[in-house]
Amino acid sequence: MTVNAEEKTAESAASEAKSNKSGSEDREITELKKDIKHREQLKEALKENELLKISAEKEKKELLDKAAILDSTAKAMKEKYVLAELKAQAAAAGLSDLDFIKMMDSSSLIVGEDGNVQGVAEVVSAFKTAKPYLFGAEKKSSSSSNAGTPAGSAVKKVDALSIPKEDQAAALKNALANPHMFNS
């Protein structure tokens, strides 16, 4: 082989090596670019995930706050319902002034699963036994002097649970809008 042929073979081998080196570098660069793009997509997804997590935590806190408000409102409404039942029973038993209800031990009264207040008759009876002088023959439902029933009209006993749902909803809406009306 001649020197010229050897140089051409060497040049061709060098060129081929350079071409192979360039091709593998190109593939490596392409792979690195794909990897960078994939990492950017992952970073973006992590940012979105973090924002969703923050939003979910905020919504959870708001829901817990609303649940606490509903629980306290339900508790207050139950207390008012128990007090109303206690007043009704005490008035029917002849309590001379409904202000004396504050002296009764109502801690044992509970609202049962059926919605009725349990133990009211027992509390009123025990109070009447302990303090009979507070009860008279007159069965008045208010300490107001003009709160009597008009002549010729019958008094109808109404259980709060027998009121239609629409009326209950309206009463609840009114109670929530005007809580000052229900302070005793």
TL;DR of this structure?
The protein is mainly α.
Q: pLDDT below 50 for ≥5 consecutive residues: which ranges?
A: 140-146
- The termini sit apart by 120 Å
- Helical content band: 55-70%
Helical region count? Answer: 3
Total strands? 2
What is the general shape? rod-shaped
Alpha-carbon Rg, integer = 42 Å
The chain-level structural class is mainly alpha
Give a quick account of the main beta sheet: strands, pairing sense, barrel closure.
Answer: 2 strands, antiparallel
* Spatial strand sequence of the major β-sheet: 1-2
Please tell me the overall pLDDT. Answer: 78
SSE series: HEEHH
Tell me what portion of residues adopts beta-strand conformation: under 5%
Write the layout of secondary structure elements.
Layout: H1 3-92, E1 110-111, E2 117-118, H2 120-130, H3 165-177
Antiparallel strand pairs: 1-2
Q: Describe it for me?
A:
It is a single chain. The chain has helices at residues 3-92, 120-130, 165-177; strands at residues 110-111, 117-118. It has 184 residues and is mainly alpha-helical. A two-stranded antiparallel sheet has the order 1-2.
Task: Please supply descriptive tags for the structure shown above.
184 residues; mainly alpha; two-stranded antiparallel ribbon
